[in-house]
Amino acid sequence: MFRLLTEEARGDRLAIDALLATVVGDDLPSAIERLKEVRENVPPRKEGRKKADHIWNDLVERVGEMLDTAIDDLVKLEEA
After folding, report:
1. Could you give the angle at the alpha carbon of 18 between the alpha carbons of 17 and 23, nearest 5°?
2. Range of the domain at 25
3. Rounded CA gap, 29 and 5, in Å?
4. What is the pLDDT of residues 2-49, one digit of tens each?
């Protein structure tokens, strides 16, 4: 079961990377550069105790992690 979940997550990760690369650039270097720009412009976390603030912060964190992973993966692909 663990292997199945791991393989599925890996497939999702590659799919997300491919979608982001397709959306942001015509070639790999421009896709990486645009993803870096998007990463720099991710909105900041919100301070507060409201449920909406917690949801917002979770979303900001997850988007940042997704972008970091996509950038790292595309850089490795470019170097290969």
Report:
1. 100
2. 2-79
3. 31
4. 454 445 555 566 667 667 766 776 788 888 888 888 888 888 888 888
Closest CA relative to residue 21, chosen from 66, 60, 80 = 66
The count of structural domains within the chain is: 1
What tokens does 64 get?
A: 């940042």
46 and 58 Cβ atoms separated by less than 8 Å: no
Over residues 41-66, the pLDDT tens digits come to: 888 888 888 888 888 888 888 888 88
Distances (CA, A) of 21 to 61, 73, 75: 20, 11, 11
